[in-house]
Amino acid sequence: MTWTILVLVVGVLLYLFGGMLLPKGDEKKPSAGKVVAKKCISVIAIILIAGSMCRLYTPYYLTAINPAIVQEMVNGMQEQQQAEKNKQIRKFVRSEGDKMMRDAPILGNRDAKKTIYVWTDFSCPYCRRVHGEIERVLADRDDTRVVIKNFSIHGPLSDGPARAVIAANMQDPTKAAELTNMLMTREFYTQDDLKDQDKIAEKVEANVMKMAAEAGLDTEQLKKDMDSDVVARELRNVRDLAQRFEISGTPFLIIGEQAFPGAIPAAQIETALDEAE
């Protein structure tokens, strides 16, 4: 702002007194060169004045007179950024989709033509909400599968359930889907469990195992598989993809070739699926 005001002052001074910078001569019959020089100085002065006034007036106009333009500009930039992000996601999913699904639990029709990838966390209330919306969608259509990418971001509340579901998928994909639904719709720890942070992981795993047994899984094998290379590979894949797609929280959905951060309703999921190829 200070430099803008200085330029404005210089422009005004040039416009008023710029002629004094030229050598004195016959004022009644000035030379052609002097006339041209005066005009050039005047033009330069006008440019400096106009440019400075624009720089001074524009912030005032955007903040005081028409602030909606700023919001429109921000929205436009965000839309462009999201479009570019979707483009990169589309390219990657088309080439690496099989790798993204290789070790992940899948809900719905495993052979479906349309795919939803969801980065989720069993201890995240918004993830539980969007899971309910996804279940509503799956109940109405059999052309969709949901690839669960367990993003373990809440420590012991996330890690045990995430590893258990991936390990369950190694044992029986159908039972893994059932366990996923249980963990998303039931509580697997209590407020009393949270009081003892040293034992919370142990208590969470015990509760998860009870649900796994109810789903018909071999819990002893499940415990072994939770420490397997397959589970470690899938969790690494989840983190690597989260970094690639700039996912910082859950839930995060990729539907077809569009990205949706946050919990979205079933209607929006349906629309995105209908738009997907």
Keyphrases for this structure?
5-stranded mixed sheet, Glutaredoxin, elongated, 11 helices, 277 residues, alpha+beta
Task: Describe, in short, the structure shown.
This protein is an alpha+beta fold and 277 residues long. It contains eleven helices and five strands; from the N terminus they run αααββαβααααααββα.
What does the secondary structure layout of this molecule look like, with pairings?
Layout: H1 2-17, H2 32-65, H3 68-101, E1 106-108, E2 114-120, H4 125-140, E3 144-150, H5 156-171, H6 173-185, H7 191-194, H8 200-214, H9 219-225, H10 229-244, E4 252-255, E5 258-261, H11 266-275
Parallel strand pairs: 2-3
Antiparallel strand pairs: 1-3, 2-4, 4-5
Helix pairs in contact: 1-2, 4-11, 5-6, 5-8, 5-9, 5-10
Characterise this structure.
This protein folds into two domains: 2-63; 77-275, Glutaredoxin (3-Layer(aba) Sandwich), CATH 3.40.30. Helix content is 65%, strand content 9%. The protein is built from eleven helices and five strands. α1 packs antiparallel against α2, α5 (156-171) packs antiparallel against α6 (173-185) and α5 packs across α9 (219-225). It is elongated. It starts with a helix and ends with a helix.
